[in-house]
Fold this protein.
Amino acid sequence: PEIKKEIYNGNIVITDVALIKNDKIVMDRVVKELKQVVADIRGDIAMAEHDLIIVTPANVKVDRKKLVRKY
């Protein structure tokens, strides 16, 4: 609820999901809820690295090309 509140308030949120990523049911529920919030506000959502989800408000888009780490 606190994360959704921050998103609805127009903030960019970067969430570490490392603790729940191995629980498929919880992870799917969290992603579904975040996608619904993003649809409501016309924002953007992207996975960064393996453990981070970035959610942005309307008019802010995630540049997915820059999320790709080059080794």
